[in-house]
């Protein structure tokens, strides 16, 4: 399980940069979309004309009022296919700027990642965001195939993570607060990006303290145990994809993935703002 997690984590910047790269902001601005409207449209376009309620349900941890405001009228501004085309164009531009297409072992990394993504398609039940993206055609360009494959693996894992949170009675806002309490991500970033009102954030913190999951602003021992359980269970639910590789190929992918993630980081594609 640790090897599978490492293979996903080390290559994840190849997917995640699409939420921060200026190429993406420029492409959705060209469609008349800005700010959160661009983000929600880019990630939900695989559903077709996704409603705000579908986005709220599947994205899980955003303030519903902000989602409704951002999604209102978005599909009258641009069609889902236009948004998908723009997303792939932005991904290709950004990854080529990072020179990912020139890295050694691209072909092998792509082969392994695509094998895992294709295996995940046999386990799509209960994973709506993954299933929507898995139904899209594969791009032709190798660097875009790699981005698409990692996108599938990210959404496969993400849908499983939501299932874990639901099973433990942790709502979207509560999940953000528990994440913030680990110190892994700045609380100000989570508050700004997910846009929950301060009073709702404070009320949710108090509920988590009453459950014994927070001690002040930090995780209590019970909270830390729950977080570890959710992360371990998420890793376990992601295993069907990586099990198709076997231990040796999964370890090979984890070893080869590091330069790809590093190239994205060094190109500044994960910078906020």
TrEMBL record:
InterPro entries named among the record's database cross-references: HTH_67
Pfam families: HTH_67
NCBIfam families: SCO6745_fam_HTH
Protein name per its UniProtKB record: SalK
Organism field: Streptomyces paradoxus
């Amino acid at each position: 399980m640790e090897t599978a997690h490492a293979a996903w984590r080390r290559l994840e910047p190849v997917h995640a940069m699409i939420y921060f790269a200026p190429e993406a902001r420029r492409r959705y601005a060209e469609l008349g979309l800005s700010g959160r409207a661009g983000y929600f449209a880019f990630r939900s376009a695989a559903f077709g004309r996704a409603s705000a309620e579908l986005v709220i349900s599947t994205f899980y941890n955003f303030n519903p009022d902000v989602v409704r405001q951002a999604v209102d009228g978005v599909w009258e501004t641009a069609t889902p296919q236009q948004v998908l085309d723009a997303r792939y164009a932005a991904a290709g531009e950004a990854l080529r700027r990072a020179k990912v297409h020139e890295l050694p072992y691209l072909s092998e990394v792509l082969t392994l990642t695509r094998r895992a993504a294709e295996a995940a398609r046999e386990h799509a039940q209960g994973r709506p965001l993954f299933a929507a993206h898995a139904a899209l055609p594969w791009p032709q360009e190798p660097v875009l195939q790699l981005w698409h494959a990692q996108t599938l693996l990210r959404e496969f894992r993400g849908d499983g993570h939501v299932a874990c949170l639901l099973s433990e009675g942790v709502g979207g806002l509560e999940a953000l607060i528990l994440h913030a309490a680990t110190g892994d991500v700045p609380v100000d970033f989570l508050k700004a990006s997910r846009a929950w009102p301060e009073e709702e954030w404070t009320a949710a913190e108090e509920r988590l303290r009453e459950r014994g999951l927070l001690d002040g602003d930090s995780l209590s021992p019970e909270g830390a145990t729950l977080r570890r359980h959710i992360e371990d269970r998420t890793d376990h639910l992601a295993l069907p994809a990586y099990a198709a590789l076997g231990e040796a190929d999964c370890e090979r992918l984890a070893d080869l993935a590091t330069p790809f993630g590093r190239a994205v980081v060094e190109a500044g594609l994960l910078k906020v703002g």
